[in-house]
Amino acid sequence: MNEADEVGFRAFVVTAEPRLHRALVASLGWDRGREATADALAYAWEHWPRVRSMTNPAGYLYRVGQSSARRRRVPVLFERPEHTDSLYEPSLIRLLAELPERQRIAVVLVHGFHWTTREVSDLTGIAPSTVHTHLERGLSKLRAALEVVDHG
Amino acid sequence: MADLSEDIHSLIQGGIDPVTFEEIRNRRHGLRPPRQRIVARVASVVVFLAVAVPVILAVSSARSTTSPKAGGLARHRVIAALDTTIASGSFDITFSQQPPTSPTTPTTTTTAPCYQSGANSSTGPASSVVGTPTTIAERTTPGPGPSPGIGTVAGGTGWICPASIGAGPGLAISGQGTVDTNPFAMVVGTEVPGFGQITLRDDGTDIWELGGGDYGLAPGSTDSGPGSSLPGFSSLVESTLGARQGASDMMVLANPTGYLELDENAITNADQIGTGTVDGSPVTVYQVTLSPDQEATVTGANTAEATAIQDALGVLKQQGYTGTTVKISIDAAGFIRQTVATASFSDGSSQTGETTFSDFGCAGTVLMPGQQGASSPPPGCVSPDTAPSPTTS
User: Fold this and answer.
1) Where are the beta strands (DSSP E) in chain B?
2) Which residues of B197-224 are buried (b: 16+ CB within 10 A; e: fewer)?
3) What does the angle CA B254 – CA B259 – CA B261 come to, to the nearest 5 degrees?
4) Rounded alpha-carbon distances, angstroms, from residue B293 to A18, A148, B74, B297, B385
5) CA distances from B205 to A11, A42, B83, B198, B263 (A)
6) Do residue B29 and residue A64 have CB atoms under 8 angstroms apart?
7) How far apart are CA B45 and CA B49, in angstroms?
8) How confident is the model at residue B348 (pLDDT cuts 50, 70, 90)?
9) Which residue of B has its CA nearest to A95?
10) Model pLDDT, residue B104
């Protein structure tokens, strides 16, 4: 990679890493999401001429990250050490991890990171109307499960 | 519902430890090794041949008169015209810019990088004379080093750190110039309200500004000097024109094709939107849309140009820049005759610049201060845009 390519790649990382990282966290949890982001960006580094010419390189790298992460059979985890004095319902960590992947992605990106359904669609390649459906179904499941927790 | 949303946000909020560039560079990606990938690809091809080919054959036999996609053909024509125009070697330009339109929501502000006035690129990489916002904070304390404000521009060697540059009202400016594409050299004369006539010479690494701040000129000189770094010029441009128009202009100054400001890699789509005339010549008008990501990397940009582009894009993004739509007029000979570029911002503001191109291959050689040589075009040079139209009888 020549100097100009490196400058371009660095600029791309600045722009794409936050979105890519958040989307992969939504899909895979904190640790696997970060690993997958690093894997995807390492792939972009090695294949930069091809990646930079893509119409939606972040969307492509999102799929690269997911492929990379699927080789590691590690559960989706949203726990963090600093979560000990959290303000949210503790069972939410487990319930989010138990959601089907696409529902979890929609719920975490829209309600956790405040993305629009269009932004979720642009990165994941899922149609906006489908993102909306996943979002509603995911929220319904969480509500129902939390109701059980509250009254069980 | 609101409680659940807040719960999710509370769970997810908190800093994400970003993946750093160094981490990426020192890491091997986690995909399958090549042998496995080859096996997988062979398997994919077999599956494709078995399943997809019969389907494709059935479809193609039913639709045997399929034509190329309009978008693909239009993109091909735009890229071919870009190649033709660059290959001409030189062209003249006339341009005009309108100030950004008013936003419909409150604007944001950004802080421009520090730079060292009068720094010569021969003393080191261009980026070495550009400070960062962190540097600004460190050097606003008493003592040697940069301080906020503009005041040591003319031929000086001090640091210049504009404290804060807002979107700004911008200025209606117009001018003319000449661009050589190989090697790149550009001279542009611009009438800037409040500053008068400013002539810029740009060799892709350094800038010489005659008039205005006399950036890059030797102390006391009106037409000579070592030149100063292209990236460092951004602070002056953005403080004069505002962050939006100024950063947009820096994108032009940093582009290896100057005011042509198009890069093949960034043109991923194009649509033919109509016809018209430019300087009396019939043209076909195409439209392309450039995203900030697509503009980040420009083919053939040197270190100074790439740095200036990144700096300008950073400023634009802080301003809510969402991309640029360019209408490109191409004549029958395949030259780009006019571009009308409209940069858009998330607050509803937009900024438009129009550039007309002529004298392809016959614009002459642009000389930087101190350079010797002929600047006139070869005697008898006839540009395709001024050649008499072929007659038919």
Assistant:
1) 90-97, 109-110, 115-116, 147-148, 159-161, 165-166, 173-181, 184-192, 196-202, 206-210, 228-229, 271-278, 281-290, 321-331, 336-345, 350-358
2) ebbbbbbbbbbbbbbbbbbbbbeeeeee
3) 65
4) 14, 46, 22, 8, 34
5) 20, 31, 23, 19, 19
6) yes
7) 6
8) confident
9) B8
10) 74
Q: What is the ipTM of this complex?
A: 0.84
Is B317 within 8 Å of A68 when comparing Cβ atoms? no
DSSP 8-state code for residue B98:
P
Of A47-56, A68-77, B324-333, the poorest mean pLDDT is in A68-77
Rounded CA gap, B215 and B250, in Å? Answer: 14
What's the pTM value of the predicted model, to 2 decimals? 0.52
Residues of A in contact with B7 (CB under 8 A): 87-89, 92
CA contacts within 13 A on the Cβ side of B323: 10
Q: Can you tell me the distance from the alpha carbon of A37 to that of A34, in angstroms, rounded to the nearest whole number?
A: 5
Task: Return the closest-CA partner of residue A130 out of A95, A104, A106.
Answer: A106
* B124: confidence class by pLDDT, cuts 50, 70, 90: very low
Angle at alpha carbon of residue A103, lines to A100 and A109, rounded to 5°: 130
CA-closest candidate to residue B8, choices A8, A26, A61, A37 = A26
C-beta separation of B358 from B386 below 8 A: yes
Note whether B152 and B187 are within 8 A (CB). no
Q: Please tell me which residue of chain B has the smallest CA distance to A26.
A: B12
- b (16+ CB within 10 A) / e for B13-38: eeebeebebeebeebebbbeeeeeee
Q: How far is B296 from chain A (nearest CA, A)?
A: 6
Do strands B159-161 and B147-148 pair parallel, antiparallel, or not at all (unpaired)?
A: parallel
| Angle in degrees, CA B279, B284, B286, rounded to 5 | 115
Indicate if the pLDDT at residue A148 is higher than 90: no
